[in-house]
Amino acid sequence: MTADQKRRRATGLGIVALLVLASAGCGGSSHAPAARRGLGPALATAPVACTHHLVFARSGSSARRMVALSFDDTPSKYTEEIVRTLLRYHAAATFFVIGNRIPGNAPLLREMLEHGMELGNHSYSHPRDMATEAQRASQQIERANAAIEQATGLRPCLFRPPYGVLTPDLVQRARVLGLTTAKWTVDPGDWLHPGVGAIRERALAAAGPGAIVILHDNTETHGQTLAALPGIITGLQARGLQLVTISQLLGDRFLAAHAAQTSG
Questions:
Q1: CA 104, 72, 170: angle at the middle one, nearest 5?
Q2: What pLDDT band is residue 261 in, cutting at 50, 70 and 90?
Q3: Which CATH class is domain 49-263?
Q4: Which site among 4, 61, 243, 245 is 20 to 30 Å from 18 CA-CA?
């Protein structure tokens, strides 16, 4: 082999090595997500709308033995397993969706509705200053509504502001767009990843009839929320509490396509 041939061969091997390293660092085969298995047979008909009578809520009636778990920042790499866990224990929950995270996840979101979960509006891109952005805040809500409806057929019933920051103006903007603004009663601080046991015990210590619990469906939880979820569910159910969606907790009901068309 000539010196020139050796040089070209070495260059070629170097390029191959760089491509392999680049693939491994940018979602190569060792990090590729597993193919979705699907959630199995649907347990419910997917709703397209719901009744709603409140402008703002942070809890439901304590007279009914119900609690609503809610998850902000959906979808994420944890979403499917969170839903599987809920279904395993015959529980429902509300997931607040960020609109620009929907592409590629529409099939999962549709399945979640078909299995009795609720999808709410968590803005289109989760801006930090949304509460003071006036018309741009309305645009964030409208774009997220449109993205959710295009992906699933559902017109969301609930809005939760990014970072929980609210002003009367933002509540009114959500109301004009047909949404109830839903905050929470119980916050175990899971986004700070304090540990599985801490998340579980904080949620159980504070949640009672009518409570809305905020949890997170994002990478910042480091998977701790998912790991704590079985203990939260079984702990609440052991007290005779039913785990429902926020709309159900507030006394609203979901509407199928024909019912929504009839009601205009």
A1: 105
A2: low
A3: alpha beta
A4: 4
Whether 58 contacts 161, CB under 8 Å: no
pLDDT for 20 beyond 80:
no
Q: Which of 72, 190, 217, 252 is catalytic?
A: 72
Mention every residue, 6+ apart, whose C-beta is less than 8 A from residue 211. Answer: 59, 60, 67, 68, 185, 186
Task: Tell me, yes or no, if 52 is annotated catalytic.
Answer: no
The yes-or-no answer on residue 4 being catalytic is: no
pLDDT at 234 over 80: yes
Catalytic residue among 190, 216, 217, 252, which?
216
Measure Cα distances from 116 to 52, 106, 112, 162 in Å.
17, 16, 7, 24
Q: Kindly list the domain boundaries of the chain, sorted by start residue.
A: 1-32, 49-263
What is the pLDDT, as a whole number, of residue 42?
82
**pLDDT tens string 26-61:** 332 333 334 567 898 887 788 999 998 999 999 999
* Both tokens assigned to 103: 């592409």
Is the bond leading into 230 cis (omega within 30 degrees of zero)? no
Q: How confident is the model at residue 102 (pLDDT cuts 50, 70, 90)?
A: very high
With 90 as the cut, is the pLDDT of residue 157 above it?
yes
Q: What CA–CA distances, in Å, run from 66 to 82, 134, 203, 252?
A: 20, 35, 14, 13
- The residues near 138 (Cβ < 8 Å, ≥ 6 apart) are 173, 176, 177
